[in-house]
């Protein structure tokens, strides 16, 4: 079965006295393969407005695309991440090593990042022409009546505490529309959107950073297995 992951992103929020433009230059000079810079529309919004709005403060201003890898680096005023930009090749085999390669280079540069304030990992899986309430282990009932009518759109959002340090946000939608490149054609199906993040700054800065990253991946994968049915999990080999 084809891997259903259509989006994957790991990012951190941090404190730094260095402007994003300076970080951009350092990334391009020090990270191999990532050379193609794209400015994003948010860059046109005045800096003072971006920093005052908590919904904009950590949004990406630049994308740096790789010449030979299915990833892109995303950079904001106080955020740095790496996202899928092609076909997903696996965690241990590809995505985790790429995350480590980026952040090890950044952490080597003294003074770039003074303190990490948040880190998160998000995966979006898409199942074309499928209803997650039929192929998954999710049911929706009201007064004991199953309301997961396959002809109706049902959108669930779940926010939960994993422990004192980590939280999750999950979105499950049975009628989501995505646009598929390169033709930009619309496809309809179900999505499982799982994001886990460290909410405790002290925990984040005291623990081994990459152990924490790997822990977030395990949390995401385990929750996906709670949602998907056993046949689907077996087909995906997870």
Descriptive overview:
The protein has 238 residues and is an alpha+beta fold. The chain folds into 2 domains: 1-7 and 121-238, no CATH class; 17-113, no CATH class. It is built from 7 helices and 11 strands. The strands form 2 sheets. Strands 2-3-4-5-1-6-11-10-9 form a 9-stranded antiparallel sheet. A two-stranded antiparallel ribbon has the order 7-8. A hairpin with a 4-residue loop joins β3 (60-66) and β4 (71-76). The radius of gyration is 19 Å and the shape is globular. The mean pLDDT is 90.
Give the % helix.
25-40%
Count of alpha/pi helices = 7
- The quaternary structure here is single chain
Order of helices and strands: EHEHEEEHEHEEEEEHHH
Structural class: alpha+beta
Q: Count every beta strand, where a strand is a DSSP E run of 2 or more residues.
A: 11
Largest sheet: 9 strands, antiparallel
So what's the overall shape?
globular
Beta-strand content estimate: 35-45%
Please state how the strands of the largest beta sheet are arranged side by side. 2-3-4-5-1-6-11-10-9
Q: Radius of gyration in whole Å, from Cα?
A: 19 Å
The structural domain count equals 2
């Amino acid at each position: 079965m084809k891997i259903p992951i259509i989006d994957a992103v790991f990012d951190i929020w941090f404190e730094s006295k260095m402007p994003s433009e300076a970080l951009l230059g350092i990334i391009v000079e020090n990270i191999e393969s990532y050379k193609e810079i794209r400015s994003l529309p948010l860059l046109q919004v005045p800096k003072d407005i971006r920093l005052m709005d908590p919904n904009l403060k950590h949004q990406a201003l630049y994308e740096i695309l790789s010449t030979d890898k299915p990833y892109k680096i995303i950079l904001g005023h106080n955020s740095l991440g790496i996202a899928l930009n092609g076909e997903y090749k696996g965690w241990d085999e590809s995505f985790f090593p790429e995350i480590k390669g980026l952040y090890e280079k950044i952490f080597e540069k003294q003074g770039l990042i003074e303190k990490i304030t948040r880190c998160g990992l998000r995966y979006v899986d898409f199942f074309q022409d499928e209803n997650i309430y039929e192929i998954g282990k999710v049911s929706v009932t009201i007064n004991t009546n199953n309301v997961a009518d396959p002809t109706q759109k049902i959108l669930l959002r779940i926010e939960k505490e994993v422990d004192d340090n980590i939280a999750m946000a999950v979105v499950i939608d049975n009628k989501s529309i995505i646009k598929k490149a390169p033709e930009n054609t619309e496809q309809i199906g179900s999505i499982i959107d799982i994001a886990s993040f460290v909410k405790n700054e002290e925990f984040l800065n005291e623990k081994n950073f990459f152990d924490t990253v790997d822990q977030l991946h395990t949390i995401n994968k385990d929750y996906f297995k709670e949602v998907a049915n056993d046949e689907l999990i077996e087909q995906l080999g997870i």
